[in-house]
Amino acid sequence: MRCEEDGAVTPTSDGVRDTVLPLAGYAVGVTAARRAEELGSLLQRRGADVMHAPALRIVSLADDTALKAATEACLEHPLDYTVASTGIGFRGWLEAADGWNLSTPLIRQLQGSRLFSRGPKATGAMRAAGLADSWSPASESSADLLVRLLEEPLTGKRVAVQQHGEPMPEFAAALRAANAEVIELPVYRWALPTETQPLRRMVDAIIGGTVDAVTFTSAPAVGTLLGVAEQAGCDDELVRALRGNVLAACVGPICAEPLRSIGVECAVPERYRLGALVRVLTDSLPIKRDLIVHTGQYEFRIRGTAAIVDGSIVPLPRREIGLLRALAAQPGRVLTREELLRVAWPAGSPSNEHAVETTIGRLRTALGPAGRSVQTVVKRGYRLAA
C-alpha cells in the first residue's frame, strides 16, 4: 500500500488497516472535453466526487476546404520550417491529407523542412510519422517557441504553422514581420458545447461552494466558463468564488493566464500533464479547503462533504457539514441558533429553529463518540469544545 501517494493509512475499530483517499470528501469540477473521462477517473481513484461540464468541443476540419487549400499550398514549393502545436492536431492533419491522397507528398515535404514542436505530444506525433524534430521548448510555451524560431534566418522562407484550437494571429504576424511566408493550418478549432446547461450548473456549483475545486485543461475553456457566467449575470460572483474558497487548477501557465489576469490564483503543475494536474490538486486542496480543529480528545479535519476524525472519514450531508464548519471556525465560542440558521440555510431559512436542533442531532449521530464534542449550551446555542 502506497500511503504517501494514495492516502493516509489508519487503523479501524476492528484493527484492520484502512485508507482515507487523499481527495475523499472533495467535489471537483472537470471542464475538459477531450480526455475528460481520463481526468475524471484519476480524480475518482483518489476519492473525489467529480462533476463533469465540458466547456468546449473540438470541431474537426478534416473535410474543410480551407485546410485542404493550406495543405496544397504546402506542396507547391519546398517548406523550410514546420511548426507542430499539438499532437492531436498534427496527427489530424496527416489523417486528413491521407483522405485526400496527399499524405505521401506531404510527408516528403515535411522531411525536407526543419521541424519545431511546442511540446512532447507534438514531438511524439512527428516521430510517429517518421519525422525527426529539430527543437522543442522545455516550457511547452508557444511564446518560447516563437522566440526560438525568430532566431532563424526567415527572410523568404516558407513556414507552415499548425494551429491549436484557435487562430494564432500574433504568432503568424511575428513570422511575417520577419519576412517569412506563413501557411496557417486550421486543423481543428474550439466551439461551444452543443448543450451549455451543464456549464451553467457548474457556475452555480462554484458560486454556491458545492464544488471545492474546478480543473481546466485549456485557456479557451476558462473563457467559455466566464462567458456563460457573464450571460447569466453572475460573472462577478463567479470570480469572487474562484478568488475565495474554490480552487482553480490549470494544466499549465498558458491555461492559467486568463484567470491570473483577473486576480485568481491557480494551482499549476510543473509538468503540464493530467497526472501532474491531479497531484498538484491533491497537494493544494487540503491547504486551501481543510479546516483543522483539535478538541480535548479528537482531531477534526473538515472538508467539502466530509469530516476526517482522527484519521477516519465521516461523510456528511450539506447542512451537517455546514454547521460543523461554522462551529469549528470559532472553536469554543457559542453560536446561537439564529447564527447557525444563517450559515447552513443561507437562502430560504426555515421559519423556526427546530431545524437546527434536528440537524445538530443528526450531526452528533454521524460523528459517533466524537459527537460529544458538539456541546449544547442551555438557552444560548451550541459550541465545538476546544
Blueprint (SSEs and pairs):
Layout: H1 3-6, E1 8-11, E2 17-20, E3 27-30, H2 36-45, E4 49-52, E5 57-60, H3 65-76, E6 81-84, H4 87-99, H5 103-111, E7 114-117, H6 120-128, H7 142-149, E8 158-162, H8 169-177, E9 181-185, E10 188-191, H9 197-208, E11 213-216, H10 219-231, H11 235-243, E12 247-250, H12 253-260, E13 266-267, H13 274-289, E14 291-294, E15 299-303, E16 306-309, E17 312-315, H14 318-329, H15 337-344, H16 354-367, E18 374-377, E19 381-384
Helix pairs in contact: 4-5, 4-6, 9-11, 10-11, 10-12, 14-16
First and last CA, distance: 34 Å
Domain module tally: 3
**How many distinct helices?**
16
User: Could you name the CATH class of the largest domain?
Assistant: Alpha Beta
What value does the Rg take, in angstroms? 26 Å
Uncertain runs:
1-17
Helix content estimate = 40-55%
How is this structure best described in words?
- This protein has helices at 3-6, 36-45, 65-76, 87-99, 103-111, 120-128, 142-149, 169-177, 197-208, 219-231, 235-243, 253-260, 274-289, 318-329, 337-344, 354-367; strands at residues 8-11, 17-20, 27-30, 49-52, 57-60, 81-84, 114-117, 158-162, 181-185, 188-191, 213-216, 247-250, 266-267, 291-294, 299-303, 306-309, 312-315, 374-377, 381-384.
- The chain has 386 residues and is of the alpha/beta class.
- It has 3 domains: 19-56 and 193-286, Rossmann fold (3-Layer(aba) Sandwich), CATH 3.40.50.10090; 59-190, 3-Layer(aba) Sandwich (Rossmann fold); 291-384, Winged helix-like DNA-binding domain superfamily/Winged helix DNA-binding domain (Arc Repressor Mutant, subunit A, Orthogonal Bundle).
- Strand 15 and strand 16 form a beta hairpin.
- Helix 4 packs across helix 5.
